Amino acid sequence: MTPDGPRAPHEAYGLREWHDAARAALDGAHYDYVAGGAGEERVLAANERSFDRYALLPRVLRAAGPRDTAVELPGAARAAPVLVAPTAFHRLLHPDGERATARAAAAEGAVLVTGTAATTAVGDVVAAAREAAPDPAVWFQLYLHPRPEVTEALVRRAEKAGCRALVVTADSPVFGRRARDVRNGFTDLPPGYAAENMRDLPGAPPGGLTDIPLSTAVGWRDLATVLRTTSLPVLVKGVLHPDDARLAVEHGAAGVVVSNHGGRQCDAVPAAVDCLPAVVDAVAVRVPVLLAGEVRRGSDVAVALALGAAAVGVGRPVLWGLAAAGEAGVRRVLAELLDGYDHTLALCGGRRNADLERGMVVRTAGDAR
Ligand SMILES: Cc1cc2nc3c(=O)[nH]c(=O)nc-3n(C[C@H](O)[C@H](O)[C@H](O)COP(=O)(O)O)c2cc1C
Ligand SMILES: CCCCC(=O)C(=O)O
Q1: ipTM for the complex?
Q2: How far is the CA of 114 from the centre of ligand 1 (A)?
């Protein structure tokens, strides 16, 4: 079953059905690459259960009236509260790849975070977004390369393309060990696919999966170098420890993204949403804190925002929409999440995102609902 065509919100497919449709459409190894996690997938499982342990305590009779859910983010005024988190290799999922994702995100007013591991060059991604909206916000995710001139070349590429912010991913000094990929022999991209942004960099071969620059040698000093060489706002992604959130802000970061990389890196960390409140307490008065991790329904967006997130990123659901129905699928996935969030805000008596407060979130045993 491929969900397609316009549909009234009450008829909307749940995201689970997009996942099923994508699984049916995809090569098994590519499905596993997206769905899987590191190690024994303990963190993947913890992420999947995490929002079941939070419940909302709505406020009533607040006479809230019409809602406005737009958010102000670095380089993105009045953006949707749901972003497209950076995910690799969209052309593995659909021939239109990142172009389809870009058009869909722009049409829904959602920031698209494209990045180092895109199978479409960043200039083409931004051009596609501009086909769908006059002034789309595209951010560029990068891994810090041990050779600063390579990082700088990537930054220049993103700036030239018209990206509005950079997102430095900090949780990947080495690549996570993913059993499914080992079992499937998925160690590099199929012929004809490449990490297009890695082409023609100083001293680098055209990039496949194995040519993405991960390094244990990079540190805060390299982040500071990036900040010195660009006027774009720079967010740091993959922060779980509140002290790292503070360090990021002290070094000049314009925001932090709480994420455990979808359970694909260290298989012994907490669920991402469980790390959110401490990071919010550490830095949210100074910079926006975003959450990316297993947001699957509008009420998850509401819980994250009530816990202090400025916005949330979604990874896999966008890829399931892309695999099942290309640009239209991504649009529908984003629209369903945004509509579900708007509806939940109404049910909680809210008019603006800030009407959701931490006191409206309670922890539950997780099996009670
Ligand atoms: C297939 C796949 C590829 C990813 N690639 C990247 C990447 O290149 N850079 C990055 O910072 N995060 C990457 N991530 C992590 C996502 O940005 C996000 O943090 C994570 O998937 C959690 O969101 P989700 O639960 O909605 O998938 C990737 C995740 C997946 C599933
Ligand atoms: C270095 C490749 C980036 C892809 C990625 O981040 C992931 O598969 O989780």
Answers
A1: 0.99
A2: 11
